[in-house]
Amino acid sequence: MTLPSLVALQAFEAVSRHGSVSAAADELCVTPGAVSRNLKLLEATYGERLVERVGRGIALTARGRMLAEGLRPGFEQIRRASAETARAARCTVLRLRSYTTFATRWLLPRLAAFQVANPDIEVQLTMASLWTELAGLDAAIRLGEGDWGLESHPLIANILAPVAAPRIAERHRGDIAGLLTHPLLSTPHRPDDWTIWLTAAGVHDTSGLRFISMESSAIAYEAAIAGRGVALAQLALVGDDLATGRLVRPLDLEVDRGQHTYRLVWDAANPKADALQRLTASLTGPSRAPRPVDDDPA
């Protein structure tokens, strides 16, 4: 059987939802007479009544209900596809990659705030443990000095300090030698951090120390929380753990890595530069740090 006019089917589907010729006409931006003519065309095609008048409204016949139930999913899918296409045409998509630990411990809540404030920009985030080149990406988070020939914007102060579970930290409060009897949790992605901190602490002979390499900083932090050793934390990434007491700083000594920090990087020639600048401003602006909640209204 040859398909009936799609315009007539659309008119009928709109009438079936609204129960009104006038309302269907308003939705379709046509006259009620045009909707009525399309209904009659369908009824002539099928040789059966599809609608009937009930008072001032329209009701579907049994055959009309059957047709409406069959058409509705298809037209819903068309409307959905059309809306998504229209939204995509207005939306700039930014493909962003981040280190997994940095994303989960710092970036994600800030991206959520950015998306709410910028509905015309969609950030598609992927995560990885290692740095990869920008091929196929619009921007990335990279750890380093920023001398890569790219737009490079520091995101956090990269301050290092040892952290441990409360029972270990309290036992060795202010006691570097005692603290270093525990396993020192490290990650191959930050190979120099412990050496830099130990040097600042005046510890130059590391031959007797036990270093345990973890796949990521996130795993090292979880191991420290479980009392498996001492992690050298980037303080900006363990703020919640310190605030809740899951991790404790046993020593006051901290080392600021200065320009060696996490950066948002992107190619200045990227045609999405306007959206990238807005993302940069959001992540580097004054509101990037979570604000403490003041329980005292006074």
UniProtKB/TrEMBL annotation:
Pfam families cross-referenced by the UniProt entry: HTH_1 (PF00126), LysR_substrate (PF03466)
UniProt KW keywords: DNA-binding, Transcription, Transcription regulation
A GO MF term: sequence-specific DNA binding
InterPro entries registered for this protein in UniProt: LysR-type_TF_proteobact-type, LysR_HTH_N, LysR_subst-bd, WH-like_DNA-bd_sf, WH_DNA-bd_sf
Record-annotated HTH lysR-type domain positions: 1-61
GO term, biological process aspect, one: DNA-templated transcription
Keyword Transcription included in the entry's annotation: yes
Family: Belongs to the LysR transcriptional regulatory family.
Name recorded for this polypeptide: LysR family transcriptional regulator
Classification of source organism: Bacteria, Pseudomonadati, Pseudomonadota, Alphaproteobacteria, Hyphomicrobiales
